[in-house]
Write a structure and sequence with these properties.
This protein has helices at 5-23, 25-30, 35-54, 76-86, 101-104, 147-163, 178-188; strands at 93-100, 120-127, 133-140, 167-171. With 191 residues, it is of the alpha+beta class. α6 (147-163) links the parallel β3 and β4 (167-171).
């Protein structure tokens, strides 16, 4: 489009010139039967050129990286634990996996950025009717023994405590029996 911009400007002036001539009384007397054809053609030519000069096609967004859809949101142990959690009072609670803190906690003071709320918890118990968040659940593996992960987990726990949203943590190599998990969840959940 840009390489033809000069051509459209030239044709715009040609159309304008033809339109001007078609309105002159001298030209109307010379060609009394066809002056209106020139008027219509010149207006159409000017409209087309104006459109082409003003039209901006959507530019494609170029990405520096390649992206690919994941095969699944949860690993096999995370999915099995989700099924176990969903067995706890399914008539009262819905369990939502992979919930960012920003989805369930609102920051009331804006002294710093909200990026600490973009941390993701493994599961969230919500009221089945109102979707009110009632409990966050973390399922930790050995990677949570690293210092950076412990710092992250402590920050998440502090934010949840400050917001009044309970958080319970289970370990993959711990007791994940239904009765133990159910007892822990029922003890910590808000409703």
């Amino acid at each position: 489009m840009r390489k033809y911009k000069g051509v459209y400007i030239i044709f715009l002036f040609v159309g304008l010139t033809l339109f001007t001539f078609s309105l002159l009384p001298v030209f109307r007397e010379l060609l009394p039967d066809t002056f209106w054809i020139m008027t219509v053609v010149s207006v159409a030519l000017m409209a087309f050129c104006m459109f082409m000069l003003c039209y901006k096609p959507k530019e494609k967004i170029r990405l520096a990286a390649k992206y690919e859809r994941k095969a699944t949101m949860l690993s096999k142990p995370e999915y099995e634990f989700l099924l176990l959690l969903r067995g706890i009072s399914p008539e009262k609670y819905e369990v939502v996996p992979q919930v960012a803190l920003i989805d369930v906690i609102e920051k009331r003071t804006y002294t710093t950025n909200r990026n600490e709320l973009f941390r993701v918890c493994d599961y969230c118990f919500v009221d089945r009717e109102t979707f009110e968040p009632l409990l966050l659940v973390e399922l930790n593996d050995r990677s949570h023994l690293r210092a950076d992960r412990q710092e992250r987990d402590a920050k998440v726990a502090a934010i949840c405590a400050n917001a009044g949203l309970p958080l319970v943590t289970f370990w993959m190599d711990g007791d994940l029996s239904f009765n133990t998990v159910k007892r822990t969840v029922k003890k910590a959940i808000l409703k």
